[in-house]
Amino acid sequence: MSDADAPPTAPPQSAVESATAAAAGDAAAQEGGVIPIPSSPRPAVPPTEDFLLHALRASGEEGAMARLAALEVEPAGGAGDNFLGELWRARVTLEDAAGARRTRCLVVKRQPTGDEREVYLREARLFDVEAAAYTSALPAMLRLLRGAYGETFRPFWPHFVYASLDRTELVMEDMSTLDFQLADRKVGLDLDQSKAVVKHMALLHAASMAMYSQNQPAVFPFLESLFRDSTRQFLETYLRAGVRQLALQLREWPEWERYAEKVSALEDKCWDMITAAVARDDVSFNVLNHGDLWVNNVLFRKGDGPSSLDLEVALIDWQNAVWTSPALDLLYFLYTSPADEVRREHGDALLQLYHGTLQQAAQALGVGARAPSLETLRADLRRRFAIAVFPAFAELPNMLAPKDLHYDIAQYFQEEPPRNKAYGAEPYASIIRRLLPLFEDCGVI
Description:
Layout: H1 13-22, H2 49-58, E1 67-75, E2 86-95, E3 101-110, H3 116-124, H4 126-149, E4 160-163, E5 169-173, E6 181-182, H5 191-214, H6 229-251, H7 257-264, H8 270-278, E7 287-289, E8 298-301, E9 312-315, E10 322-324, H9 327-334, H10 340-364, H11 374-383, H12 389-400, H13 428-441
Antiparallel strand pairs: 1-2, 2-3, 3-5, 4-5, 6-8, 7-10, 8-9
Helix pairs in contact: 4-5, 5-10, 6-7, 6-12, 12-13
């Protein structure tokens, strides 16, 4: 085995933290996955003029003489969005010494303080991971992709502007001002959109293979998955609550009572099952996964060509990026984001498109020999199918819930959570009844 083929060996924790610190827009109105918020946050304080001007100057993108001529700041999102961090949209107008003005449209992500979210974010290192992705891994992969496809290759993520030294504040361009838009998560992605996502997913994975072959320490900040001991208290509570809610709903559908018992039996073992499914196998094929690849973390802009693959894509919210099997991104995306009929009728074709694009990109990047066969990939997805339990049982009901059935996920952390009626509402009710036989067939339930 050559050095380039050797599995990454995690350095001591202090070295991991040092590597992360050294490696330190999205449409933010809907950015982020449905992640538990254990308590009500303190009122958020908007970013100040001084902070925004410092961020732009520190990035080297604005001269020291630029002054702030105008500023508009507004929250990115509203009540019930279940964001884990604070999100702000800022429109900053700068004026140079000659009086010329330019406007920068930014998104500011800030780690909250004073409540359990701060503890969770610190333990999960989500802001550290995202800073490492934007400032180290993604630029390295962009250089490789431009080397393979030409300097005109455009990144499929927001331009990053600034990370504070303690990695609690991140600033990036606001992609919504560049005509990138979110799809309707309650409708799901159509076939063209789904094809565009799996194509870019494959490009990301192939580029990460090439990055790893040249610089193994580049993946050190991404060796831990979200499912680990330091996050277990919060995530397991959230997952077990979702399992209980689904089992309660299934008991109200007489023909599905046998599934209610199977789902209920998962409550005590779902954490270990999902943790094992996500875990990296160092002797198998691994890539840098986005880790939270669902419809609300993908923006679209129509490209110049007639093909669906000419859709421009921007992937946002890189806080869960992790080095492991591509099954994580594939299963998470396929079981949260395409419209139900797209997943049912074209799921295998999407997998084949991903694999073909991965092989082509890996070949162009000089790592073609490392790409797995389609048969190997299928087997890995089946072996890790438990990954789909987390979105299907805990997240999808809240993603698809009608507005009148909004459920604040903080309620899951109450001693006796109220019923979440989203589990019995359409379209989730029809989707889960189609998915349960798949989980049974794969031995998950």
